[in-house]
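User: These chains co-purify. Model them together.
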Amino acid sequence: QVYLQESGPGLVKPAETLSLTCTVSGVSISSGAYHWVWVRQAPTKGLEWIGTVYVSGTTSPYGGTTYYNPSLGSRLTISVDTSENHFSLKLDSLSAADTAIYYCARLTSGAGQFYWGQGTLVTVSS
Amino acid sequence: QSALTQPASVSGSPGQSITISCTGTSSDVGNHNLVSWYQQHPGKAPKLIIYEDIKRPSGVSTRFSGSKSGNTASLTISGLRTEDESDYYCCSYAGRQTWVFGGGTTLTVL
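Assistant: Joint model of the two components:
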């Protein structure tokens, strides 16, 4: 069984940076079997794909190929730490519009199957 | 990259069938066989119920089925049950390793 668990602050101030981590158990994130994804859901809104990281055995321990939602532009960084078997999200210059439940998920890219963590609520407020 | 279009709400009575549409473009829904559907109960994470347009994961009821025509994918739930009352989201591959979700549909079982 593969489990994903998000962790990070529940409250962040405007203009600051959000850092979240998704710890994966049950499979190595560098196995190449899955892509690793961040998705968010603003209150009473739909789901929004944030970005993806893919790690293969030939990637450096702290590297990975990343794909980002263009709407988030240069504010977003997704990275991996294969030694800790987790991947992370960093989102800069926060505003109230970034208030959301943030989910990490594993993605079988060739089949479009997303399997989700439980999510973590992040509120941007002073 | 625009969100896929879903109706905000649908409703049906127990035992009936309902269909939820998901309209995209020739760059996403119409260009790849990678539409998936998710069921999300309040306060819970989404759950995969359909992938690759029409396939069901192991353990998902056969009452759930997917289809696609052109740029529009559809989710049909037959033999509605009260426990089907939930939010439903579609998702499509949009090329270059990007993904787009629909705005979600709330299903009410009357």
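DSSP finds no helices and eleven strands in chain A.
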